[in-house]
Amino acid sequence: MSNCIIAQSGGPTSVINSSVVGLINGNKKLKAFDKVYGGLNGIEGILNKNIIDLSSIDEHNIQNFRYTPSSGLGSCRYKLKNSKDSSEEYERLIQILKEYDITAFFYVGGNDSMDTTAKLSEYAKINNIDITFIGIPKTIDNDLVYTDHTPGFGSAAKFITTSVLETYLDSSVYVNNGIFILETMGRDTGWLAASACIARINNKPVADFIYLPESVFDEEQFLKDVKERFNKQNKVYIVVSEGIKNKEGKFVSEFECISNDKFGHAQLGGVGQYLREIILKCGITTRVKALELGILQRCAMHCASGRDLEEAHKVGYLALEYALQGESGKMVAIKRNDNTEYKASYFLVDANKVANNVKYFPVEWINEEGNFVTKEAFSYFEPLIEGIPTLNLENNLPKYKVFNN
Amino acid sequence: MSNCIIAQSGGPTSVINSSVVGLINGNKKLKAFDKVYGGLNGIEGILNKNIIDLSSIDEHNIQNFRYTPSSGLGSCRYKLKNSKDSSEEYERLIQILKEYDITAFFYVGGNDSMDTTAKLSEYAKINNIDITFIGIPKTIDNDLVYTDHTPGFGSAAKFITTSVLETYLDSSVYVNNGIFILETMGRDTGWLAASACIARINNKPVADFIYLPESVFDEEQFLKDVKERFNKQNKVYIVVSEGIKNKEGKFVSEFECISNDKFGHAQLGGVGQYLREIILKCGITTRVKALELGILQRCAMHCASGRDLEEAHKVGYLALEYALQGESGKMVAIKRNDNTEYKASYFLVDANKVANNVKYFPVEWINEEGNFVTKEAFSYFEPLIEGIPTLNLENNLPKYKVFNN
């Protein structure tokens, strides 16, 4: 029997390691390959032969790895050149894979990783190389086309929505409350920020306004809306995606500031901080707080979605099955079946179709005022945060296991 | 029988509502008072007769309230004048308490709340008013004297340490990693930042350096330490308290910057952002991230400490017992018994002794280099984060219940 290899690429998520374990478990059951190798730090590491044998690791460590956030095999941001322009790396990679008797290569990642998967598969087909390349989706941004959603997104959404609930309560305790701004990730798409809609108390969303990159940000209208709402209820809770743009198509967060000490120019603060500044300047209230969730939202395994973890495991498992069926240059995608109760099925899509596209938050799910989402968004997000993982503990903290350190 | 009242004051925590429920449960068991009233928004609300009957609320809502972060009765930052200078508010408050047939007043809070408790108790004694005033400790800062630790701190420490683990992993996935700076609260004391020491992988702390207000911050030494560590291991993880000060005793975070657009002067970013700037300026690496946990650390009930929740409940329960014994002008404090296994007992301390003091992080628990803590700190922190609460859910998110909205 031959071997296979799996590697991770791009930004980490809470559930990317679960996909690796899905593949390992798939091989344990199907006995398709002798060994499951792990490439450390993606393509970059494989090119340096940083390769470990995942199938020899004991079950206890694999279980901890399954519930560990971050890319536990290490990651890279490495873009392969077109093989027509430069085939050197392709040749070297194929040579290494052959050296390890590898006939299937699995890449867990987003857009760029699907580009790599497509290119390698294409190169192998042209050159009659008998290696299969399958992509496994992963990104908190939820911006891959064809798939209903991406593994990693549900857990990020769960941390965001939980934090929205908790910070809303925290920022509402005084008689004179202020304005709270929560900034989420999402440079190009608004999925993460939009998910905040499902944070509700007494069935009413706690967020007053949600701003997404898919809707032009009008500063004047924003200040008008916030002022009106503040006058009405004495507090305003705002969720904003880091990637909102003005009518010139420029990122609202692209503002610089000059510190008055030795540093000269320095870019400080993101869009949340900017909105805070303009609210203060406008004189609506002096009580304005901005909080950037930053990388917490993509690594908060302690608040992950059980369904997300399961689906991440499943796409890893199925990638192995599809490879056995001789598929190559494809990505495993998730389909949401059209029934009232959430149920997912899985299918394959061409990796190169995923690579060169972005799935935006549907504009028809944004309200007319451009400051909130419609009920379709609620139905879309709700099932994705279901379930809570039970983590192994050590000294009362989660016991995490990675292989790249 | 007469009635009692409980109110909350100062900054919220994850477990302050648990203390209120402890008192309600104490009264259910001991049947000491007819009604347990809740004063909304602390003294400020009581002076406006914003008072609700907590003993009439059904068990289901009380249970949700018990596991809800933030001050669910609302809060205030209201400092009573000395009664000798102005007794008007005292008279009005006593009149309202008498109107509601209240003979015991419980105040959950930190330094300022204990000041209020002491002043009111003193005023009642002098004027022969038969009302008891008991303080219940609460603050994430852990800076109250006499008590081993404060309810609220353990849960904040648990969120901080969990986030340190998770963000450490997230920021270590590449071949070329950078420097990560996590900023915690703690304007005057370093307890919160110091707790990060217990975040370990393979029994080694993941934080390389921890900086506290109790140790003078030397910028030059800092940059030297960070550079050396970065050269050695290609990544550095730093935890810093917002309140660190330089040798002039000035907050390191007191730096202003001038934005280049319409705003003029604006204070942006805290100390984490400042450290990021000086590392960049020093040229150690261009990969530097700073993350401010902000209010997340005091409201993350989804990651609370079970022990903290229990102890918060206990001090509420005992406050009622002590009031029955005729005590007044005291605060319930926690004692850690000197045995290897953690066990707490409880005692009373004069509220005015707590009011005018700050418990600093012991300087003997800081290493000689002023950039980490000693093993005594590990032993102190570890038991405080034990246990995980099981939260009631609604639509897969925690079901929270407050009474101030």
TrEMBL record, chains A, B:
Substrate binds at residues 139-141, 185-187, 242. The keyword Metal-binding applies. The active site is at 141 (proton acceptor). The record marks 112 as: Important for catalytic activity and substrate specificity. It catalyses: beta-D-fructose 6-phosphate + diphosphate = beta-D-fructose 1,6-bisphosphate + phosphate + H(+). Diphosphate binds at residue 11. Keywords: Cytoplasm, Glycolysis, Kinase, Magnesium, Metal-binding, Transferase. Its EC number is 2.7.1.90. The record marks 138 as: Important for catalytic activity. Mg(2+) binds at residue 111. It holds the Pfam family PFK. Pathway: Carbohydrate degradation; glycolysis; D-glyceraldehyde 3-phosphate and glycerone phosphate from D-glucose: step 3/4. It is found in: Cytoplasm. Its cofactor is Mg(2+). Non-allosteric. It comes from the Bacteria. The keyword Transferase applies. Residues 4-305 form the Phosphofructokinase domain. Homodimer. Belongs to the phosphofructokinase type A (PFKA) family. PPi-dependent PFK group II subfamily. Clade 'B2' sub-subfamily. PANTHER family: ATP-DEPENDENT 6-PHOSPHOFRUCTOKINASE 1. Catalyzes the phosphorylation of D-fructose 6-phosphate, the first committing step of glycolysis. Uses inorganic phosphate (PPi) as phosphoryl donor instead of ATP like common ATP-dependent phosphofructokinases (ATP-PFKs), which renders the reaction reversible, and can thus function both in glycolysis and gluconeogenesis. Consistently, PPi-PFK can replace the enzymes of both the forward (ATP-PFK) and reverse (fructose-bisphosphatase (FBPase)) reactions. This is Pyrophosphate--fructose 6-phosphate 1-phosphotransferase.
